[in-house]
Specification:
This protein is mainly alpha-helical. It folds into two domains: 8-26 and 142-220, Helix-hairpin-Helix base-excision DNA repair enzymes (C-terminal) (Endonuclease Iii, domain 2, Orthogonal Bundle), CATH 1.10.1670; 35-136, Hypothetical protein, domain 2 (Endonuclease III, domain 1). It contains twelve helices and no strands. The chain has helices at 8-22, 35-44, 50-63, 67-72, 75-82, 88-106, 114-118, 125-136, 145-154, 162-172, 178-191, 210-220. The two termini are 14 Å apart. It binds iron/sulfur cluster. Iron/sulfur cluster (SF4) binds next to helix 9 and helix 12.
Length: 221
C-alpha cells in the first residue's frame, strides 16, 4: 500500500474524520449518573477495566449514594465493596478522603476544573481530564494507555510519555475536538489497535499509520 504523503495537519484531520465515522457514538464506558459517580468510577478504573468497575459501582452507589455517605463509611466496608478492582486498599482510602474534601470544600459537589480535581486524593491528570471533560464539558484530552499507544503508532504524536502525548495532541488537534478525539482513540485502541496484536487488517487507517507503513516497508526489505 502506498504511503499517503500529506502535511501533518491534513493527516490529523483525515485520521480524526475516519475515527469519527467509525465511532460516532464513542463516549465513556464507565456507567454513571452524576459527576460524583463518574469521579468515583474513574478513580476505581486505574489499572483495571471499565467492565470490572461497572460490576461494583451499582451496589457501591446504592449503599453510598453521595459523598457524605462515603466520607462517613468505615474504610474496611468500602474496601470490601471494591475488592475486585485492584489496589483496593489505596483506592478505598483515596475515595473516602476525596469525598471528605468534597464535603468540606465544595459543599458535596464535584469541582469542575482540572486543577481543583487534581487536588483530590487518587486523582491524577488523566482522571481529572476525564471528569472535567465528560461531566462538565471542559475541553480536555485524557491520555490513558490506549490514547498513548494509538496516537504514537499512527504518528499523531511522537512522545515518550503520557504528558508529552497530551501536549502534542492538544497542539495538533483543534480544541473543539479534544474530548471526542479522546473517546475515538480509546475506542480504536480497545477494538482494533490492540496493545499486543493490532488488528491492522481491519483498520481503516493503514494508509495514514506510521506503524503500519514501517511494517510494510520492513516486510519488503
Ligand atoms: S494500522 Fe495497525 S497499528 Fe496502525 S492504527 Fe491501525 S491497527 Fe493500529
Amino acid at each position: 500500500m502506498q504511503r499517503d504523503y500529506r502535511t501533518g495537519n491534513e493527516k490529523v484531520g483525515e485520521v480524526l474524520d475516519i475515527l469519527e465515522r467509525n465511532y460516532p457514538d464513542a463516549t465513556t464506558e464507565l456507567k454513571h449518573r452524576s459527576p460524583f459517580q463518574l469521579l468515583i468510577a474513574t478513580i476505581l478504573s486505574a489499572q483495571t477495566t471499565d467492565r470490572q468497575v461497572n460490576k461494583v459501582t451499582p451496589e457501591l452507589f446504592r449503599k453510598f449514594p453521595g459523598p457524605a455517605d462515603i466520607a462517613e463509611a468505615p474504610v474496611e466496608e468500602i474496601e470490601n465493596m471494591i475488592r475486585t478492582c485492584g489496589c483496593y486498599r489505596s483506592k478505598a482510602k483515596n475515595i473516602k478522603e476525596a469525598c471528605g474534601i468534597l464535603m468540606e470544600r465544595y459543599n458535596g459537589k464535584v469541582p469542575s476544573t482540572v486543577e481543583e480535581l487534581m487536588e483530590l486524593p487518587g486523582v491524577g491528570r488523566k482522571t481529572a481530564n476525564v471528569v472535567a471533560s465528560n461531566a462538565f464539558g471542559v475541553a480536555a484530552i485524557a491520555v490513558d494507555t490506549h490514547v498513548f499507544r494509538v496516537s504514537n503508532r499512527i504518528g499523531l504524536v511522537k512522545a515518550s510519555d503520557v504528558h508529552k502525548t497530551e501536549e502534542q495532541l492538544m497542539d495538533n488537534i483543534p480544541g473543539e475536538k479534544w474530548s471526542r478525539a479522546h473517546h475515538w482513540l480509546i475506542h480504536h485502541g480497545r477494538r482494533v489497535c490492540k496493545a499486543r496484536k493490532p488488528l491492522c487488517h481491519k483498520c481503516p487507517l493503514t494508509h495514514l499509520c506510521d506503524y503500519y507503513q514501517k511494517l510494510v516497508k520492513s516486510s519488503g526489505d
